[in-house]
Every structure is written in structure tokens, then in C-alpha cells.
Amino acid sequence: MMRREVRASAFGRAFALLLASPGAADEWVLGLGADDVFDGHNKVVAAFLAEYHSDPFSQSGRASFSWMAALQADTDGDVLAVGGIYFLMRSHGSWVVEASLGAGALHQGSNPLKPGDSFQFRTSIGAGYELDSGTRISLSIDHLFNKDFRNTAPGTETVLLRYTRQF
Questions:
Q1: Half-sphere exposure of 87 toward its Cβ, with a 13 Å CA cutoff?
Q2: Which in 11, 55, 111, 158 has the greatest CB count within 10 A?
């Protein structure tokens, strides 16, 4: 119980810092949602996300590619840290489509996907709306899977409501 309180407190402070002051990053993302959404064998738990996107390293028209780093946790005790590539496509209006692919380490909490398997991939796809201020609100589905790339251990999905702030 004490470990969950410490983790929740640490994430709360991180979120407050992200909202309070601009950083040197191009974008900061905060997300709140549910993990284990489509898993019949697990219970649905709350999930939290903090993500960073660098300035785009490649742009073509309305599409851009950036480096990405993310920290994701849930109330089941899972903590994921990944790095990878982020893709953003803006429409002619204010709608956006976003996707990412990352790899990193997973600390598995009380309901492990596969005991001892800490290296994971995370894919994400989402759609959202860009406000006049340049901030975005989006809904994403993330999929977490291990290095085996087989459906014997199908991974887990997280649905997140995301708030993105540009700097």
C-alpha cells in the first residue's frame, strides 16, 4: 500500500511540474485513462501518462516526425518507460492524427503480462483536436507487447485522454 502511495505522489508532483512551467521541450503530453481495457483476464485499472516530443526532425507538408520519451503507470503497479518515434498529421481544419512506436523497460506490478519480461514495445494511435492556443486534446489507444512478436502473450491495451501543450 505504501509503495502505491509513493508512486501516486511522485506522478502527481511530475504532472504538477509539467503544468506549472514551460520546459525546453517542443511538447509535453499528460494523459489519463484506463489500462487492461480489452483484456478478458485482467481488471481495468486507472492509467497515467507523461510524454515528451522533441522538435520535429522531419517535416513534409502537414506531417512531422519527432523523437518521443514516455513514462506510463497504472494503479496495478505497472510502470513503463519508453523512447521512440512520434508521428503527427494535421488536417486542413483543426483535427490531428498521431501515432508512435517506442521500446523500453516495464516494471510489472501485481498482475504481470509475462513474469520476468521487462523489455517491451509500445505502439500508439490516436486522433484529436488542436485548439487555437496550439494545445491539443486527443484520444489514443496504446498497445504494449513483448519482444516475441507472437500472439501467445497478446499484451495489453490502454485508452488515454491526452492533453498536449506546445512550448
A1: 14
A2: 158
Ranges of each domain in the chain: 2-166
DSSP 43: -
Block residue for cell numbers 519482444: 147
Which residue in the block uniquely carries the three cell numbers 512551467? 21
- Residues paired with 105 in a beta bridge: 81, 119
Report the distance separating Cα 141 and Cα 157, nearest Å: 7
pLDDT tens across the length of the chain (167 residues)? 445 454 445 555 554 444 444 444 489 999 999 998 887 666 889 999 999 999 999 999 999 999 999 999 999 888 999 999 999 999 988 999 999 999 999 988 776 655 667 888 999 999 999 998 889 999 999 998 877 765 556 678 899 999 999 88
Whole-model pTM: value is 0.79
Phi and psi torsions of 12, nearest 5° = -60, -45
Cβ atoms within 10 Å of 127's Cβ, excluding its own: 15
The CATH architecture to which 2-166 belongs is: Beta Barrel (2.40)
Q: Are 161 and 133 in contact (CB under 8 A)?
A: no
C-beta of residue 85 within 8 angstroms of C-beta of residue 104:
no
